[in-house]
Each structure stands twice: as structure tokens, then as C-alpha cells.
Design brief:
Blueprint: H1 3-11, H2 18-30, H3 35-48, H4 52-63, E1 78-82, H5 90-100, E2 105-109, H6 119-123, H7 135-145, E3 147-151, H8 158-168, H9 176-188, E4 194-201, H10 210-226, E5 230-237, H11 248-259, H12 267-282, H13 288-300, H14 303-314, H15 321-328, E6 334-339, E7 344-349, H16 351-363, E8 377-379, E9 387-388, E10 393-399, H17 402-414, E11 416-419, E12 428-432
Helix pairs in contact: 1-3, 2-4, 2-8, 4-9, 4-10, 5-12, 5-14, 9-10, 12-13, 16-17
Bound molecules: uracil.
Length: 433
């Protein structure tokens, strides 16, 4: 086969055959396709798109470019993927809840991207936790604990690793086809029975409009199902942070509250986690009320907390995380309120600006090599629609030093619009199966 013919086909609005796309994906992984060819291919896809069959074939080819895990376990192998938002720490609760319900969750996760936090960075806020485990360790922890949240090894979807690096420097990230193949190639390499996708929509998401979120959701759900993994998607609101905390250790603290059964600590986080877990159990044949009850019981009974603590210990973290989590999480030296400049209702929250404020505090990366400060961020973040008087707190800011706290506090204050009373929209906008 010839990379030039494949690129020319996409350039001329024709979809290459599945065999050609699989060959191209293998060529990305073994470097027989050059950077120039990878860049030209990516640009042709951005400009002309692939049809559904082409998108499925590219996803399968990229998935199969490295190791694809196979499991022999006494329960279903399940996972969730979120397209990224602020205060979205669902994964840390969802994985142990599903494990407590008898499922297995080998969750291959990512780091923060832009204004959004990453599950791996959050886990690493817990001292000692090692997310770089071998495939053998991933298998062992998944089998023994029921869940493991880890980084992808270089053997998982190497074609994506290569193509993503090329896209990053050739203005070819923004393509529903390429984003779909990229996300799913990594997830499907984990050998899942079922997957649920949380497609975020709003000011704190990459997809700001329902139209864009729906287009991405449809592409993800049809492609994953077409590639043989039973998949459903929920389009969910991201017009305010999902949890009332942003920043790595602060989000872990909220998750520990929810895992301790304190669901009032983060009602929206709790509601969405329950919905996503319930959806996955329903895809295994449970009916809705039974699945929902199982999920809530896993949290209420402490079974999910027990799974979480077991996972943390197995990954090198403290053995007493369930009991002593407040002593293990790092704390920032400077803590102070950001207050409202006027009175009124919180009528809008710029989630992206809040996420970038956390990055400016040192809680995320400006460049790939930046070291994260896990202790910094925002807590007690006020919700949409709440009423404030001038001087009331909008949130609590946690910083490494006074100067940074002062400069970031202004950005945080500006992210809240105070105006007329407003009603919150639904948390779950639409479901796709
Ligand atoms: N996340 C990914 O893994 N890939 C993309 O292309 C975009 C977001």
C-alpha cells in the first residue's frame, strides 16, 4: 500500500478502505508513515472528514496498533470517558462504585489538558500513588480490587500517540473524526464490554454549544458501537463546575466526602456519578431501579470507599486512606475567600476561566514539563443561581504564596457574573445509545 494514495483519497473526498486505514495506523505506530504524511493525512481529514465506516476503520486500526487487553474475569469489564470539564472528578468515585457492584474497571486515564483537570494528576495528589504501572500490575490490581486507574503504557494505541503529537503542531486537533478515533482507540484497547461517554457541554467544556456536543457525542457513540464495544453517551451540563472544588487535592477531598456517604458535599457530582454508573449496569441487563439502588447502596454502605482505599494502597498510597484521608492530602499555605463585588444572583460562571485560574495557581500545566502543585485550587465554589450580598464569599482560594493569590483572585472574581435571578438547566441534557 501507499500512504500517498490514502492521503489523496481523503483529499479527493473518498474514504480509503478499512484495510488501507488499518495499514496507515500500523505505519504511524512503526514509523513507516512519515511525519509529513501523518500531517497531510490529518489535515485532509480535518478539511474533508471521513464517513462513518472510515471513522470506525481508523479507530479500529489505531486501537489495534498496540496491545489490546483481553480479560477472563467473573464480572463485566466497564469504563467511562469524559470529554473534559472543570471540577469533574467522577472517575475517582465511579470506578470503585462499579467495583463494589461486581464489575471490573481497568481505567486508562489522562492528565490535565488546557483548562480541564486530569484524573491522573488528581490521583497523584495522594502521596505515594504510582499511576505508571505495567500491564501485569494493571491486570493484578483490576482482578484483586475491581478497579485500577492508571496511565496508558507506550504499548497502548501507539498510532494515537504519534498522530496526536503531529496534530498538536499542525493545527489539526479540531476534527470530530480525529478526536473520536484518538479517544476511542485508547479506551477500546482496554478490552471493555461496555463504555459510557460523558460529553460535556458549556462554558467549562471544550464543546461550548449543544450542536457541537451532539455532533461529537453521535460520532463517539456510533463509532464505539461500530467497533464492537457496547456504548452509550450522556450529554451533560458544564456551565458551572461539577464539584464545588477545582484543583487536585481539593477535588480528591470532595470525592472522599462523597465516598464517605456525604452526598450533600457535592450534589451534582453525586447525581452524575450515579447516572453514569446506573447506565453502565443497565447495559449489563439490570433494570433501572435495581441498578440505581445498587449504585447508591455501594456509596451508602461504604463498599465503594473500601474499594477506593484498597486501590490506593495497591498503587503505593497510604494504607489508611479511608479513615485518615484529611491528614494525607497536601494543603496550601495561603487560604482566603474571594468575595462578591456586588449583590445579586450568580447568573453565569465562566468555567474555562476558573480552570485557567487553577492552572495559574500552579494546579495545572502551562507546558508539558511543568510540575503541578497538588495543594492549590478553589474550594467551596458557589453554584449558579445562588444569591450573594456584596462581600459574601464566591469561593475559597488556596495558593502557594500571597502574590499569586492576589493576582489570581481577581481572575476568579471576574469569572462569576452577578445579575438577575436565573434557573439552573438540567444536569443531564440528553442520552444517546
Ligand atoms: N483527547 C484525546 O485523547 N484525543 C483528542 O484528540 C482530544 C482529546
Amino acid at each position: 500500500m501507499d500512504a500517498r494514495a490514502i492521503i489523496a483519497a481523503v483529499r479527493d473526498h473518498k474514504t480509503p478502505s478499512p484495510e488501507e486505514l488499518a495499514w496507515f495506523a500500523r505505519g504511524l505506530a512503526d514509523k513507516s508513515v512519515s511525519d509529513a504524511q501523518a500531517g497531510a493525512f490529518a489535515m485532509a481529514v480535518v478539511l474533508n472528514g471521513l464517513d462513518e465506516q472510515g471513522r470506525i476503520a481508523l479507530t479500529e486500526g489505531m486501537r489495534d496498533s498496540g496491545d489490546v487487553l483481553r480479560w477472563d474475569l467473573p464480572g463485566p469489564v466497564l469504563d467511562k470517558h469524559s470529554t473534559g470539564g472543570v471540577g469533574d472528578c467522577v472517575s475517582l468515585i465511579l470506578a470503585p462504585v462499579l467495583a463494589a457492584c461486581g464489575a471490573y474497571v481497568p481505567m486508562i486515564s489522562g492528565r490535565g489538558l488546557g483548562h480541564t483537570g486530569g484524573t491522573l494528576d488528581k490521583l497523584e495528589a495522594i502521596p505515594g500513588v504510582n499511576i505508571n504501572v505495567s500491564e501485569q500490575q494493571l491486570r493484578l490490581i483490576t482482578r484483586e480490587v475491581g478497579c485500577a486507574i492508571v496511565s496508558a503504557t507506550s504499548r497502548i494505541a501507539p498510532a494515537d500517540r504519534r498522530l496526536y503529537a503531529v496534530r498538536d503542531v499542525t493545527s489539526t486537533v479540531e476534527s470530530v473524526d480525529l478526536i473520536t478515533a484518538s479517544i476511542l482507540s485508547k479506551k477500546l484497547a482496554a478490552g471493555l464490554n461496555s463504555l459510557v461517554l460523558d460529553i460535556k457541554c458549556g462554558t467549562g467544556a471544550f464543546m461550548k454549544t449543544p450542536q457541537n456536543a451532539i455532533a461529537l457525542a453521535q460520532a463517539l457513540v456510533t463509532t464505539a458501537n461500530g467497533a464492537g464495544c457496547r456504548t452509550a453517551g450522556l450529554i451533560t451540563d458544564m456551565n458551572e463546575p461539577l464539584a464545588p472544588a477545582l484543583g487536585n487535592a481539593l477535588e480528591v477531598a470532595v470525592c472522599m466526602e462523597v465516598l464517605s456517604g456525604n452526598t450533600d458535599a457535592a450534589p451534582r457530582l453525586y447525581e452524575l456519578t450515579v447516572a453514569l454508573c446506573t447506565q453502565l449496569l443497565m447495559m449489563q441487563g439490570e433494570d433501572n431501579p435495581v441498578a440505581g439502588r445498587k449504585v447508591k447502596d455501594a456509596l451508602r454502605s461504604g463498599a465503594a470507599m473500601e474499594r477506593f482505599a484498597h486501590m490506593i494502597a495497591a498503587m503505593g498510597g497510604p494504607p489508611d486512606m479511608a479513615q485518615d484521608w484529611p491528614t494525607h492530602l497536601p494543603k496550601a499555605p495561603i487560604v482566603g475567600e474571594v468575595t462578591a463585588a456586588t449583590s445579586g444572583h450568580i447568573s453565569a460562571i465562566n468555567g474555562e476561566a476558573l480552570g485557567l485560574a487553577v492552572v495559574a495557581l500552579g494546579g495545572g500545566r502551562q507546558v508539558e514539563t511543568d510540575k503541578i502543585d497538588p495543594s492549590v485550587g478553589l474550594s467551596d465554589v458557589i453554584g449558579l443561581g445562588a444569591h450573594v450580598n456584596r462581600g459574601d464569599p464566591l469561593c475559597v482560594l488556596h495558593a502557594a504564596d500571597e502574590d499569586t493569590a492576589i493576582s489570581v483572585a481577581e481572575k476568579v472574581r471576574a469569572a462569576f457574573t452577578i445579575g438577575e435571578a436565573t434557573t439552573r438547566g438540567p444536569l443531564i441534557l440528553e442520552g444517546l445509545a
